């Protein structure tokens, strides 16, 4: 048994500032010193943020207000913006709210990931919450009872990202689940899609019966797809390796460890893994497209990308399918071999499955997800409320779609497809010409099959070194010990 499984390791949540009671006991001089210190710190942060922001970020109204304090012209502009905001301020005192699930679809290749970041305004959540506040569907993120199903990294897309949130409603709580109230409710998707970027769109919403139902904790399965060209890969060998993945096991050798965030349990239940062709008709060439589909209760940071990196090595016949079993045996291989995860661009959160009844109580403390660096997190351990209360009504209802919104969404996605399809066809024609020139002039013994090189985000070595013979990363126990010494973690 490892140290991590014998002992509970938690984040050392140190208080970042003095509580109000302690501040009240400080003298006037001490308070002035603290204010001067904080202002200097804010100035330092503002300069750091300004260096990291893109031109697009700086054009955003929020950041314009932050940085436009140097000239009189910008001050007057800020005053006009502030005045306009005050005139449009929404009165939330009499507003009704309802708890819903929102299904959001996005292409992530132009964004810095899903989660909000301090040094970038170009994330999916940043755009989503600006749209939610601009349309007055929420007062603020802090009061919106927000949870996300899965945290996707930079460039990663999602067809079925689901969030749970409290939105403004036309109807009082006692009648919100009536059929007439649902049909006459605010057109949440249509309203949001008018202010969201075209590659971030709301697909549907679902009324919930429980006010604590969570898209994060009540999700029982997440399905991802990783798209890739066949290239020179041995697809049957990759599928054989996938069969070794399907188990309840410790995946520490198939992820990027984030021990510093308190993640010390790397056991996940991988429910299915398969490699499928994207099209029914295949050309039997390196240009045929496939996808790896993986379903699990939850995922670790970079888990699918690490799995895909190993599967590519198996497909290239550099590793045997049994290497998956070897890496999952953490007693024999407690330290991860050094290898680079596959790139994030082809990854897509394709489907999410939810339980009918939440396992959370109304008095449950909000765990939040701001500090969670894993792509997804393991659901809370709790009893099956369906088994305990079989007669109680389900917390979930039906997804509410709008025909006009769906037509508009299809139109936008078709335009996105047309743009990339035109580029793909042009490039494919150029490749066809180049391949013919190579064949006519040099008659090579083998065709060039380099379509997969893009996915391997690493330098190609002159001589391949097998995974199990490579240098190893630090063990989980050593990492825990390191962060315990730095007082980031506490072992109970």
Automatic annotation (TrEMBL):
The keyword Amino-acid biosynthesis does not apply. GO terms for biological process: mRNA pseudouridine synthesis; tRNA pseudouridine synthesis. SUPFAM superfamilies: Pseudouridine synthase (SSF55120). One of its GO terms (cellular component) is cytoplasm. It comes from the Eukaryota. Gene3D superfamilies: Pseudouridine synthase I, catalytic domain, C-terminal subdomain, Pseudouridine synthase I, catalytic domain, N-terminal subdomain. Residues 361-395 are annotated as: Disordered. One of its GO terms (molecular function) is pseudouridine synthase activity. Coiled coil: none annotated. Residues 369-381 have a biased composition (Acidic residues). Belongs to the tRNA pseudouridine synthase TruA family. This is Pseudouridine synthase I TruA alpha/beta domain-containing protein. It comes from Drosophila ananassae (Fruit fly).
């Amino acid at each position: 048994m490892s140290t991590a499984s014998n002992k509970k390791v938690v984040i050392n949540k140190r208080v970042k500032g003095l509580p109000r009671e302690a501040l009240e006991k400080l003298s006037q001089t001490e308070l002035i010193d603290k204010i001067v210190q904080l202002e200097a710190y804010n100035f330092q942060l503002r300069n750091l943020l300004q260096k990291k922001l893109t031109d697009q970020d700086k054009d955003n109204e929020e950041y314009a207000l932050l940085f436009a304090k140097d000239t009189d012209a910008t001050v007057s502009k800020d005053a006009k913006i502030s005045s306009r905001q005050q005139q449009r301020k929404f009165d939330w005192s009499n507003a009704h709210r309802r708890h819903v699930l929102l299904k959001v679809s996005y292409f992530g290749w132009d964004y810095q990931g899903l989660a909000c970041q301090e040094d970038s305004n170009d994330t999916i959540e940043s755009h989503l919450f600006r749209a939610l506040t601009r349309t007055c569907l929420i007062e603020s993120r802090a009061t919106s009872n927000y949870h996300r199903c899965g945290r996707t990294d930079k460039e990663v897309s999602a067809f079925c990202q689901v969030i749970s949130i409290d939105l403004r409603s036309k109807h009082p709580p006692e009648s919100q689940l009536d059929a007439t109230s649902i049909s006459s409710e605010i057109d949440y998707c249509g309203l949001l899609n008018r202010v969201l970027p075209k590659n971030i769109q709301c697909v549907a919403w679902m009324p919930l019966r429980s006010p604590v139902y969570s898209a994060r904790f009540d999700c029982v399965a997440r399905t991802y797809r990783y798209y890739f060209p066949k290239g020179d890969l041995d697809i049957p060998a990759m599928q054989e390796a996938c069969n070794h993945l399907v188990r309840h096991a410790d995946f520490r050798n198939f992820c990027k460890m984030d021990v510093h965030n308190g993640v010390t349990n790397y056991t996940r239940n991988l429910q299915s893994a398969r490699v499928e062709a994207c099209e029914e008709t295949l050309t039997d060439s390196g240009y045929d497209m496939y996808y790896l589909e993986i379903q699990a209760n939850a995922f670790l940071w970079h888990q699918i990308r690490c799995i895909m990196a190993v599967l590519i090595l198996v497909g290239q016949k550099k590793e045997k399918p049994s290497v998956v079993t070897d890496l999952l045996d953490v007693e024999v291989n407690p330290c991860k071999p050094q290898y680079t995860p596959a790139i994030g661009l082809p990854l897509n959160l394709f489907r999410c499955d939810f339980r009918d009844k939440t396992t959370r109580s109304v008095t449950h403390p909000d765990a939040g997800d701001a500090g969670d660096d894993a792509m997804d997190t393991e659901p809370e351990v709790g009893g099956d409320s369906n088994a305990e209360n079989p007669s109680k009504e389900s917390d979930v209802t039906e997804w509410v779609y709008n025909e006009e919104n769906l037509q508009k969404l299809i139109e936008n996605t078709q335009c996105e497809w047309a743009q990339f399809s035109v580029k793909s066809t042009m490039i494919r024609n150029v490749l066809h010409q180049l391949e013919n020139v190579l064949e006519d002039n040099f008659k090579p013994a083998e065709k060039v099959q380099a379509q997969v090189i893009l996915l391997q985000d690493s330098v190609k070595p002159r001589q391949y070194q097998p995974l199990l013979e490579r240098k190893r990363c630090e063990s989980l126990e050593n990492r825990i010990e390191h962060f315990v010494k730095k007082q980031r973690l506490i072992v109970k």
